[in-house]
Amino acid sequence: TSAINTKKIIKGHSFDYDIFLKLKEKKIYNQQKPYAIFLDQCLPFHPTAAFRNEKPKATKDKYFPALNNFFNNFEAKTGLEIIFAAHPRSRYDLYPEFLYGRKSFLHKTPELVINSKIVLLHTSTSLSFAVLYNKPTIFLTSDEIIKSYDDFRIHSHSRSMNSLLFNIDDKNDLSRLSNEKLFFVDKKKYEEYKNNYLKYPETPEKNLWNIFLENIINESRN
């Protein structure tokens, strides 16, 4: 049956919003000093490229040193330690040298975003948590990523969030780390993103499957 013949549309939200609702019920304690969080995509080792027989968007020999250099400057300018929210498929236990001594955590991204001061990323779908928790965002590209098919998404995200975009390979970009907009949050843009991609406006603050089941039950009674 095509969508045009659909008799009932059940309005709800994304699965990330379910996680957001679940964490609202918990008390998340911050035992860290103030920090920034990097939403890692482990680009040089991401399995999708290998699965598709594609070249990675970035190579380990160029990407990680440039990322580390940018992070060093960011930490010096802001006084914030950068922590990796490691990609679920990453294996930093096998290549810890690419963390340059920084902390990394697996499967803790929403909790790490909650207590962070700012979120750095490329195109991670975990952007949704930065939006839901109203965290400032900084988007990162590189000379290699710019040449890939995925670069337009980083630029598009930065524009849609009205957030700063940095090229980690561009030494001239480092001067912009003193930008007064570094911690700016455009609440209007964030609300638009939430309404367009995360939660249909005015839908119940309930688990998505509960919304679905309640609608099915009510429909069967009519």
Write up this protein.
By secondary structure, the protein is of the alpha/beta class. It is built from nine helices and six strands. It has helices at 15-24, 47-51, 60-78, 109-115, 127-132, 143-146, 151-161, 187-198, 208-221; strands spanning 35-39, 81-86, 104-106, 118-121, 137-141, 164-167. The chain has a six-stranded parallel β-sheet. The model has no long low-confidence stretch (mean pLDDT 88).
Q: Which radius of gyration do the C-alpha atoms yield?
A: 19 Å
Structural class: alpha/beta
Average pLDDT: 88
Order of strands in the sheet with most strands: 3-2-1-4-5-6
Number of helices in the DSSP assignment: 9
Instruction: Give the termini separation.
Output: 22 Å
The largest sheet is: 6 strands, parallel
DSSP strand tally:
6
Strand residue percentage: 5-15%
Q: What helical percentage do the residues reach?
A: 25-40%
H and E order: HEHHEEHEHEHHEHH
Low-pLDDT stretches: none
What overall geometry do the principal axes of the alpha carbons give?
A: globular
Give a brief description:
This protein is α/β, with parallel strands linked by helices and 222 residues long. 40% of the residues lie in helices and 12% in strands.
Keywords:
6 strands; alpha/beta; 222 residues; globular; six-stranded parallel beta sheet
